[in-house]
């Protein structure tokens, strides 16, 4: 099959169709698809490749949902490995970094759906982090969490977002989207909000002026058609609100979960998914190669298959490492700069909203940060 008709549309800036997306997935020559995606990437961003200085807080892994792909969640307090942080424990993670002079700009906060915590637990968590560092960007709570709080605490989605924002919420991460097709959701995450509910939380957030990201979990039981459908539903919402900043394809990791018999996606599947995403999602500006999940080497290669962002320094990731990711827990900013530079791209440190923090000489002369020895995490409740 020739890519010519698709190439013509891409060059003319025309949106690709569902059939085009499926054809790109089925096209035998990965490098041809990648080169086309790279044209789009370079038209949008040139060589610029973004990263940020961030870390994750997963305040609790207690979760009423039983997603088959998840290795992180525990059903109830007291189950082996279940934990819920006290506020002091969560706040200490930021305080340690501030004390050590780490110029961190973002905290990524994602939790289980805990049925025994008051809503104040979350607002107080955010407010305390902002007290320690008022300019830290809090990218917190997936749409699945927001929708659960709406149901559990009996407040509208808008009111939940309003209260979280008043406490310090700055934007929403893109997790929990999985695959929108009801056939797949029913099998792998039946007790999670529906695709429409997930999209509606983002629609509401965007209308309130909050930015967010979006994701797709690929490599479980979905078809290529269901992946394309997923991306097109994100594109349609973006057409309406323009509130998504970044799309992040998430490769399934099979260890320690109910889908462990499935193989992980191969490198070729990863690169093809990045390229197709760059081509289909013409209206979402950034495409993130989340190195924690892709592996540093594939993430580096993805910078030539459409991706223009590597996420951040991360430091202590749980969701993927409990699912068998063998990537490091952290990369220093120097290491990220090297990964990007050796890929032949230009590193740019950004904040969460893609404002430039440092580039060029300023980036090269930035003081490297080595994280301090961590106090052990005491598990409460
Ligand atoms: O929602 C869970 C996925 C997501 C597994 O917005 C798994 O900047 C693969 O959303 N194998 C959480 N995937 C991570 C996430 C994210 C990551 C980085 C940046 C951003 C951002 C968002 O991880 C979950 C789920 O879709 N996930 N378990 C697994 N075994």
Give the tags.
381 residues, alpha/beta, TIM Barrel, 4-stranded mixed sheet, 4-stranded parallel sheet, globular, disordered C terminus, binds ligand V47
Low-confidence runs of at least 5 consecutive residues: 371-381
So, the CATH homologous superfamily?
A: Aldolase class I
Helix content: 40-55%
**CATH secondary-structure class:** Alpha Beta
Number of domains: 1
Largest sheet: 4 strands, mixed
N-to-C series of helices and strands: HHHEEHEHEHHEHHEHEHEHHEHEEH
Beta-strand fraction estimate: 5-15%
Shape: globular
From the alpha carbons, calculate the radius of gyration and give it in angstroms.
Answer: 20 Å
Strand-helix topology:
Blueprint: H1 4-12, H2 18-26, H3 30-45, E1 48-52, E2 54-57, H4 87-99, E3 106-109, H5 120-132, E4 137-140, H6 143-153, H7 157-167, E5 171-172, H8 182-188, H9 195-207, E6 211-218, H10 224-241, E7 244-251, H11 267-280, E8 286-287, H12 291-294, H13 296-302, E9 309-312, H14 333-342, E10 346-350, E11 356-359, H15 360-364
Parallel strand pairs: 1-9, 1-10, 2-3, 3-4, 5-6, 6-7, 7-8
Antiparallel strand pairs: 10-11
């Amino acid at each position: 099959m020739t890519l010519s008709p698709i190439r013509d549309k891409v060059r003319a800036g025309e949106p690709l169709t569902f059939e085009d997306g499926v054809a790109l997935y089925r096209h035998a020559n990965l490098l041809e698809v990648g080169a086309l995606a790279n044209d789009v990437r370079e038209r949008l961003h040139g060589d610029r490749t973004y990263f940020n200085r961030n870390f994750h807080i997963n305040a609790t892994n207690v979760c009423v949902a039983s997603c088959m792909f998840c290795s992180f969640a525990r059903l109830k307090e007291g189950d082996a490995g279940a934990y819920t942080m006290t506020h002091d424990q969560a706040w200490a993670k930021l305080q340690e970094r501030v004390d050590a002079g780490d110029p961190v700009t973002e905290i990524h906060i994602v939790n289980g759906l805990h049925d025994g915590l008051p809503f104040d637990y979350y607002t107080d968590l955010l407010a305390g982090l902002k007290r320690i560092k008022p300019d830290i960007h809090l990218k917190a709570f997936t749409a699945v969490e927001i929708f659960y709080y709406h149901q559990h605490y009996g407040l509208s989605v808008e009111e939940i977002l309003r209260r979280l924002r008043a406490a310090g919420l700055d934007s929403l991460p893109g997790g929990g989207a999985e695959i929108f097709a009801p056939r797949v959701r029913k099998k792998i995450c039946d007790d999670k909000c529906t695709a429409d509910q997930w999209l509606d939380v983002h629609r509401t957030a965007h209308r309130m002026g909050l930015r967010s990201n979006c994701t797709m979990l690929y490599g479980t039981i979905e078809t290529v058609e269901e992946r394309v459908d997923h991306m097109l539903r994100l594109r349609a919402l973006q057409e309406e609100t323009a509130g998504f900043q970044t799309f992040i394809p998430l490769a399934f990791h099979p260890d320690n979960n109910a889908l462990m018999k499935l193989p992980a996606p191969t490198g070729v599947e990863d690169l093809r998914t990045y390229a197709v995403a760059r081509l289909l999602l013409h209206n979402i500006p950034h495409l993130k190669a989340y190195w924690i999940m892709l592996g540093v080497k594939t993430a580096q290669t993805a910078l030539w298959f459409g991706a223009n962002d590597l996420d951040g320094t991360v430091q202590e990731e749980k969701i993927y490492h409990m699912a068998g990711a063998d990537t490091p827990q952290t990369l220093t900013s120097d290491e990220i700069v090297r990964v990007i530079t050796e890929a032949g791209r230009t590193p740019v440190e950004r904040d969460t909203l893609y404002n430039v923090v440092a580039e060029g000489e300023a980036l090269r002369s930035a003081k490297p940060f080595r994280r301090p020895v961590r106090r052990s995490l005491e598990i409460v409740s």
